[in-house]
Write a structure and sequence with these properties.
2 copies of one chain form a homodimer. The longest helix of chain A is centred in the middle third of the chain and has 21 residues, at 182-202. Chain A is 43% helix and 19% strand. The first copy, chain A, has 12 helices and 10 strands. Chain A folds into 2 domains: 6-180, Rossmann fold; 184-303, N-(1-d-carboxylethyl)-l-norvaline Dehydrogenase, domain 2 (Orthogonal Bundle). In chain A, helix 6 crosses helix 11 and helix 11 (273-287) crosses helix 12 (292-303). With 310 residues, chain A is α/β, with parallel strands linked by helices. Chain A binds chain B through residues 199, 202-204, 206, 210-211, 214-217, 219-220, 223, 292-293, 295-300, 302-305, and chain B through 199, 202-204, 206, 210-211, 214-217, 219-220, 223, 292-293, 295-300, 302-305.
Chain lengths: 310, 310
């Protein structure tokens, strides 16, 4: 029995499987709760190919919904998409112990509150993943590039459990940026995601440069970033004007690519519309801030029925 | 030989063929310039089924591009779509005589200037068609409902040639609303078309009620109408606030339907993006009026590559 903490991954898609592999490599016991992939993983474990080497592993326990856990994990890592049709509280509740730290590796804004409210006595660690990885078959994940996590305690600070988890990830071989303002980091990431992701979907999966190169495209992106910044500032996270051009130039410096929401859309998967866009518009409304560009895109997605039922 | 005026239809699709039939019924000589449908119409004439009866006719002359006209027409009626790839001046130039009145039955805003500039000595009559008609095969048109024309001299007034044409259409059996402010009427029609048409396209052909029933849909339509109204007011066509709710209620009072731009999109035909939306945004910019909702929709269409090359 390792003296390293025990880990339970809930939602072992590409992201959960990969970060589980890293913690396994760091010497943790890593178990997983699965749905459709239960049989494949039970039989063959999780296959993870990566520039870091072959990270394939067999979870210590493989559960499915409704199973009774052998023990409450030290860390429960939730990696499901944030969709209105997915009740994340119900999903994690059976597995949470008195001392379980809840870890979110998920996209979007204002996605922690619901869980923090449901489990007020458990530390909550919020993470943003910067990674290119995809699930190519049941239990099979291809890690292509990157992998950094930005990580902090929610709503702010860096508590001991957060520091411990960061050390384990580092030991497993990935880069961790600890922050005592993880919500601010979410806003920072949304400066890019909130304009580019939904626009690419409305444009039926357009890549980054198609968006920027269209007549008026750069200015539309600027206007949307500006609206996100106004809302972030009202929430206590003011940012320097120069991040606007940094986002544009950074995107231009990379080859054209389709972002993860565009890929979800093109593959017929639900999109995290509200986590990435709808919540920003809702917070803007709460502050009385006009966000006409963001709102037009949001309502257009709704008209298209790009709801995000799971 | 009739003493009624001679008519030449340029762009004898559903609209041109139908209004040509009406003028034929009124006793005019009606000829047509055709492209792809030349052979069919030369052989069989134009078939027009209509609630008004069978309006089929054989044009007095059937021309194609490059032909030499036997005589310049008294009225040249231009019914092609307004698309950047279609040079309307070149299209009508060979057929224009010294006394030819140029008649536009076309959608959109700011679509007359180019022709008025090219033919400054010829009266220009601008018409808006309220009609449901479609071309079902080469030379075959199905008129389903309506047919009213709103008509006036450009840029304003009702000159004698306009009155004469109105009388002929009336004699042929359709309703004419003469206006001495036809540009204002275009703005009035665009209050509806400019929001609904492009939104339905972005929403991949959504019908009217899908747009209004989406969360935030009605308010987005209101915001877009309001922006069109602000531009119209700056152009000298102020409108009463109440037209906003009238447009919403009028749309709700009808069964859900797909507008003509949505149908063009769904049938793979080019859309009149700039005539209906781009020109409004350009005029707004000229006046320094912010139209963020309209602009977001316009740029999104551009990103999608829904240019309107013919």
């Amino acid at each position: 029995m390792s003296d390293k903490p025990s880990i339970l991954i809930v939602g072992a898609g590409a992201i959960g499987s990969f970060y589980g592999a890293i913690l396994k490599k760091a010497g943790c016991r890593v178990s997983a709760v699965l749905r459709s992939e239960y049989d494949a993983v039970k039989a063959n474990g999780i296959s993870v190919s990566s520039p870091l080497g072959d990270l394939s592993y067999r979870p210590d326990n493989v559960y499915r919904d409704g199973d009774t856990p052998e023990e409450a994990p030290d860390y429960l890592i939730l990696c499901v998409k944030v969709l209105p049709g997915v009740d994340r509280v119900s999903l994690v509740k059976p597995w949470m112990g008195k001392n379980t730290r809840l870890v979110l590796i998920e996209n979007g804004l204002d996605i922690e509150r619901e869980l923090a409210d449901a489990f007020p006595d458990n530390p909550l660690i919020s993470c943003l993943a910067f990674i290119a990885a995809s699930r190519t078959a049941p239990g099979v994940v291809e890690h292509k590039a990157y992998g950094k996590l930005v990580m902090g305690s929610f709503p702010k600070g860096i508590d001991e459990s957060c520091q411990t988890l960061a050390d384990l990830f580092t030991e497993g071989g990935i880069k961790i940026d600890l922050t005592d303002q993880v919500v601010g980091e979410r806003w920072r990431k949304c400066l890019w995601n909130t304009p580019f992701n939904p626009l690419s979907v409305i444009a039926n999966g357009a890549d980054t440069l198609s968006i920027l190169d269209a007549e008026g495209g750069e200015d539309l992106i600027r206007a949307m970033i500006r609206e996100v910044m106004a809302v972030a500032a009202a929430e206590g996270y003011p940012m320097d004007e120069k991040v606007i051009e940094q986002n544009i130039e950074g995107t231009r410096a990379m080859p054209a690519y389709k972002n993860s929401m565009a890929l979800d859309y093109l593959n017929g998967r639900p999109i995290e519309r509200d986590a990435v866009l709808g919540n920003v518009v809702a917070i803007a409304k709460h502050h009385g801030i006009a966000v006409p560009h963001l709102n037009t895109v949001l309502v257009t997605l709704r008209i298209r029925g790009l709801l995000e039922s799971a």
